[in-house]
Amino acid sequence: MNVTENLSNLVTIGITTKNRWQDLKTTLINISKAGLEALPILIFDDASDEPCPFNISDLSLQIKLQRFKESQGLIVRRNQIAQLIQTKYYLSLDDDSYPVSGSLEAAVEFAESLDDLFCLSFPIYNPVLAEYQNQSFDNQPYPVRCFVGCGHLLHRERFLQLGGYREELIHQGEEMEIAARAFQKNLHCYHFPDFLIHHTASNTGRNWHRMDFYGARNNVLWNDWFVPSQLKLIKQFRTLVSRLSLGIKVRRWGQFQGEYAGFREIEQFKKYRQNMSIECYKQWQALPYT
Q: Is residue 49 domain-shared with residue 146, that is, in the same domain?
């Protein structure tokens, strides 16, 4: 298959949004500037307070916008997008992230060359803070543990075969959790350096307490589900110290409350335990993060 000519048959862009219409418009304009106007784009609005204030059809993109009356969160909506699209690959973007350089065609060609691909991670740069959120450490693709949610390319069928994201996580950490499950099935994530994503990381609509709480909670749950039994206690202790130190540093209580919630809910979610062997865990830990 000629990837360049058939990119729109291979890739769908999926975006979830809520109350960030201006960010979304900027993202869509930049998708067009990147030469990706032929790709189908599926946008799920997770119960924004107001309808879209601009005319989607004016952007000359292949957009389908679906609005929901009840908010169910990013994880649920991303799972629903994956279930609905028909293409082999799912290019997942935040409503405030977009490609600015490099080649999606080259990324897909690389993906097509792999028998064990689960997801491609990309370099992600925040132009507002003038810093990388995810930086490339080589000019050639290389294996990594997981991927960053605001810009990645998923093998959709394999994602669905794994059951998608754990919706019980609610918010934060879903990428690391499913990547660990994929790794145990010999499906791997790779960092592809030649497709740069800008993530403006708008603070509009962000709830820092919610992010702190679920980040800490889900860290505890990940440790319980995947860290080898022999190492779990010390790992949980180190995570606790790290999270409490962070909470004191930033003076936000969500870190403390999330740690408590995570330990309290371990028994409730123990059915998700797929603890790695020591050898598997060492291989996982040896990989770059994203």
A: yes
Residues of the domain holding 140: 7-199
Task: Report, as an integer, the average pLDDT of 114-143.
Answer: 96
Sequence-distant (≥ 6) Cβ neighbours of residue 217 within 8 angstroms = 258, 259, 261, 262, 265
Residue 285: strand, helix, or coil: helix
- Angle among Cα 176, 139, 196 to the nearest 5 degrees reads 60
- Whether 280 maps to a domain, the answer reads no
Last residue of a domain, one of 166, 181, 199: 199
pLDDT per residue over 240-276, tens digit each?
A: 999 989 889 888 999 999 999 999 999 999 999 999 9
Residues 177 and 217 both lie in one domain: no
Dist. CA 269–CA 220, nearest whole Å: 11
Distance CA 271, CA 274 (A): 9
Q: In what order do the strands lie in the sheet with 124-126?
A: 97-102, 195-199, 124-126, 131-134
How far apart CA 99 and CA 101 sit, in angstroms, is 6
Domain boundary residue, one of 153, 179, 199: 199
Residue in 162, 155, 163, 138 with CA at minimum distance from that of residue 189: 155
Provide the domain count of the chain. 2
Token pair of 180 as six digits: 């660990």
Q: What are the two backbone dihedrals, phi and then psi, of residue 118, each rounded to the nearest 5 degrees? A: -105, -45
Residue whose token pair is 């507002």: 128
187 lies in the same domain as 70: yes
100 and 182 share one domain? yes
> How many angstroms separate the CA atoms of 147 and 222, rounded?
15
Retrieve residue 195's tokens.
């497709």
Distances (CA, A) of 263 to 28, 191, 213, 223, 228: 41, 33, 13, 10, 17
pLDDT tens-digit readout, 5-59:
589 999 999 999 999 999 999 999 999 999 999 999 999 999 999 999 999 999 9
pTM to 2 decimal places: 0.95
